Amino acid sequence: MGDLLSRIEITKLAHELGAPEGDLAFLTASSPAEIRELRQIAQTALFARNEDRVKLLAALSRMLPVSLTAKIAEFALGPMLSARVAGVLDPREATRLAGHLDSGFLARLAPSLDPSRVAPIVRGLADPLVVEVGRMLLEQDEHLTLSRFVSVVDVSVAMGVVADATGADLLQVAIYCDEPAALDAIAQRLPDRMLADIITAASDASLYDAAVSLLASLSQDVCTRLVGQIGAVPDEAREELIAAVAHHDVWPNVLPALHSVDPDVLKAMVNVPITMDPELVDRVVAHARTLDVAPVLVQIVLAFDDEHLDVLRDSKALRSAELQDWLVTNAGVGTRLIVPVLEALGLR
Amino acid sequence: MAALDTLAEHLGVRADRLTAFSSYDEGQLARLDTLLTGAMSAEDEQFEAGLEEALRFVPRPLRPAAKKILFGGSRG
Predict the structure, then answer these.
(1) Are A60 and B17 within 8 A, CB to CB?
(2) CA B21, CA B25: separation in Å to the nearest integer?
(3) Which of A57, A105, A177, A292 can pair with A147 through a Cys bridge, CB separation 3.0 to 4.6 Å?
(4) What is the pLDDT of residues A159-188, one digit of tens each?
(5) Residues with Cβ < 8 Å from A94, sequence gap 6 or more?
(6) Is residue A5 part of a domain?
(7) Secondary-structure percent of chain A, ordered helix, strand, coil, rounded to 5
(8) Full residue range of the structural domain in which residue A289 is found
(9) Does residue A309 fall inside a structural domain?
């Protein structure tokens, strides 16, 4: 997942510097945390550079009628400078000023805002205005900008923004979002249909790593609902998704979610070529043991077809007496059902 | 490593804050620095023009006071 997360951080740094992403592609050799820190240093340097001028412009705005300040912002300063000035204005002044600005201008200004500086201003704006600007940003594919405000706006406002968003839009916003808790609060309110759209969008664009990264960042409840939508994607895409889950070893996020997946979907998920690997089986078993989800392990075994069941014979983990005792005790079904299955599989 | 020192100077931090990037070659670090200074120059130009332009929108009676706020005593 490191590569994907590094690429996401490069996109954010490129946005900060107003540079093409390709010019920074060499930074993929750095970790996401290193690139993030570089972006924060660069952002601080850029903000500090003209801070005196920003304060002068803010002082000027205080001696003029708000309607005239709005005119100056829109026609003299432009979006970037206005965004900088907004960051130092008193939130009440800024909110009043925003009320005099055209929503289209606010949408052009939003990408240059620093959410941490303007959060009180955004929270003071009328909800319909924030929704209108958010929808404009969505239309302009400003997913990165929207992702930066996920934790700033109220969940109900965010829901208004994404009401008509496509799965691809939602996936992009989620990928860039740095605030998993805020993202989760929105995802909890999304209907299953939209969650299915996100999974489908990831498979349509072959963004399997992104989908897995999303699964890993969401709460168990939302992860469970999202995994439940995997039946919506074609067989090949499902295989790729499971391959990405295995590659990034996010089984701890996915395993508990399998408990409530439709049995047919579970069969389709686990009977893929990549799961015909005893070492992968051992990893899954180890995670199941750590998470203490014996019933899920039983469900998976029962969902396997004959070809996959044959592979279980070569699992070292399943041969362990300690593991089998745990399974028998915690599977949630009678011992008389588990033991014969283990014997039939040649594991006991 | 000259390029790393230059980058740190332009970012306003000590070079040891950037040690994570010391494995990049001089050319790559110079490219990063060019992008950074380019962004800084672009912002500087926008500020120069923006301050001048803002003044044009200020009503004439308020302009001397506005000029004093924006440019101090450096302009008549």
Answers:
(1) no
(2) 9
(3) A177
(4) 999 999 999 999 999 999 989 999 999 999
(5) A86, A118, A121, A124
(6) no
(7) 80, 0, 20
(8) 276-348
(9) yes
Which candidate from A46, A60, A77 shows the least CB-CB separation from B66? A60
Question: Are A53 and A23 a contacting pair, CB within 8 Å?
Answer: no
CB atoms within 10 A of CB A297: 23
A45–B43 CB contact, under 8 Å:
no
The single-letter code of the amino acid at A242 is I
Average pLDDT of A199-209?
90
Nearest CB to A17 within list B39, B51, B53: B39
Residue A37, burial from CB neighbour count under 10 angstroms (0-12, 13-18, 19+): middle
Q: How many residues does chain B have?
A: 76
The pLDDT tens digits of the residues spanning A290-315 come to 999 999 999 999 999 999 999 999 99
- Tokens 């201008």 belong to residue: A105
A chain contacts of residue B16, beta-carbon cutoff 8 Å: none
Sort out which chain B residues have CB atoms less than 8 A from A42's CB and list them: 11, 36, 39
Please report the ipTM that was assigned to this predicted complex: 0.91
Domains in chain A, number: 1
